[in-house]
Amino acid sequence: MNEQRTTDAGTLAVVTGGAGGIGRAVTATLAEAGYRVLAVDVEDDADPAAHAALVADLGAPEAVGKLFQEIEDTYGVPGVLVNNAGIYEARDFLDYDAESYRRVFDINTGAAFFCTQELARRLIAAGRPGSVVNIASISGRSGSPDAAYGASKGAVITLTRSLGQALAPHRIRVNAVAPGVIDTPMASRIPTDRAAGYRERIPMGRFGEATEVASAVRYLAGPDASYVNASVVDVNGGLR
Description:
Shape: globular
Largest sheet: 7 strands, parallel
Mean pLDDT: 94
């Protein structure tokens, strides 16, 4: 019998970036599956299905530590973490400065690193299994004209594979979903001509829906994926 296998019902799940399009869909989907979902964002604007909405800027490790201590003290130790917090802007490579570059990595990659670290410490201390799902991007596989964003999501993919190996002995699985172009407010920032080009290249002929990403997250987070680890699932309509 696999000790990793647990039921969804009642499991505490943390979803970062919970106020965004994918974050709200993940919150609703996990709540429907029976999870108690804590939605974390810089804005207090979670999906109504959330058990609670928490406000935190996860770009700094000290903020992450404070958040997870608050969660443990108030709600207990989560069994699931969805690292969805992320920022995107269309910016020419030559226009990046050090501050804007660091901010992209601090949120898109650093938050996933330190949130997973805080959760793992608590799960290991409690002797409990857990599941982490990172939200990467097709840009992390194929690159992007938005260089910092693409590089940060490539780092998320490598982080997923690395942490999946590092935490497996502790019965903590780490996987990722790599969405293509999803119809969310964030995607609306893609330049119009580039978005049209993406649509033409997608074999399914349309952008994805946030709920389609959320379904993949639910699978990876839950007991049906008990032997899936250090893996990246593409949700992109066949875009390459």
